[in-house]
């Protein structure tokens, strides 16, 4: 499933991270910061503009210091998730109560869970078919994507209560440009990426996609390219969001490993910025795509219905939810393959979600079971199953560490 993105003209300046970050030409594995190599927090394009008041600036400076280690032979490795470590909450969110917001697509409601008690403390109606709960770029608001209702419902993270919906056409999913100047709405059924004002959501422009079912995405390490998945045609599209041009269409192999076609879902950049990991629901695994050349490197099997991708708080592992298999695969960024699998006792349908602020739990919606699963990331046990509404989908664990949100259920930098 997908959503589309657009923006209203290029920002005043787009800063290329390569000017400040050096990625080692060799000897570095994805996300592996060992062996004396330095790890540096990535800085997004336009970060100096601070359009939302520079929230979390102090925390960002400290994060950069904390993640830089003396390196041998001048080696430096980028860690785009260096600001997402446990305890690195921006001052903007530090006093928000910890909650889990679950959009129930079939019920048209949002369930609010207290993660300390595992109890649903509130449930309220929103628009038709809510798909994801998305933190805003400035971290101040949560947006419920009411796909069939053609609205976005704001949630105040302080009170946990909804506000007045804003009309937005086909908001399957929602992202924000790294500098915070534009919201990118994934208009899945319209095969369109819409550029909107990130606060008012007034339409600034649209791009028709050369594929069907745009839905999930992530940005390159310098923030200049938005790599999006197209679920229904089995493609990836590399979008230059400043120029508003499609730079490349990546055709995922069909009839691979016994599957009739590809069905790409979530997209996540490796910590060192070199590789995009793309979940493929039809193939039952993940594609590794070169983040510079946008070329498919390999396919790695994880489990039936591979869907959501989440990075551990130490940047060493990628959690892959296998919706059809009722499991989560733990992929090592250093080894580029699964090293563990967590199974749901009695089966289930783990879909979208997020990692707790301290990194100790992974929360996932059980799409076809009307429940939420809480995994202990230390041993992979399911510590709780929590009943919610029908069709729970893209839940958001909030707040989380990070200086700003790039969208979806919480892609923080």
Architecture overview:
- The chain is an all-beta fold.
- It has a single domain (99-398), classed as 7 Propeller (Methylamine Dehydrogenase, Chain H).
- 2% of the residues lie in helices and 41% in strands.
- The chain has one helix at 57-66, and strands at 38-41, 76-79, 99-104, 109-114, 119-125, 130-135, 142-146, 151-156, 161-162, 166-167, 173-176, 183-187, 192-196, 203-208, 214-219, 225-230, 235-240, 245-251, 264-269, 275-280, 285-290, 296-301, 306-311, 317-322, 327-332, 337-343, 350-355, 361-366, 371-376, 382-387, 396-398.
- Strands 6, 7, 8, 9 and 10 form a five-stranded antiparallel β-sheet that branches.
- A hairpin with a 4-residue loop joins strand 28 (361-366) and strand 29.
- The chain is globular.
Q: Give the rounded overall mean pLDDT.
A: 85
Shape, per Cα inertia axes: globular
How far the N terminus sits from the C terminus, by CA atoms, comes to 24 Å
What is the CA-based Rg, rounded? 19 Å
Task: Please name the fourth-level CATH homologous superfamily.
Answer: YVTN repeat-like/Quinoprotein amine dehydrogenase
| CATH domain class name | Mainly Beta
The number of helical elements comes to 1
Structural class determined from secondary elements: mainly beta
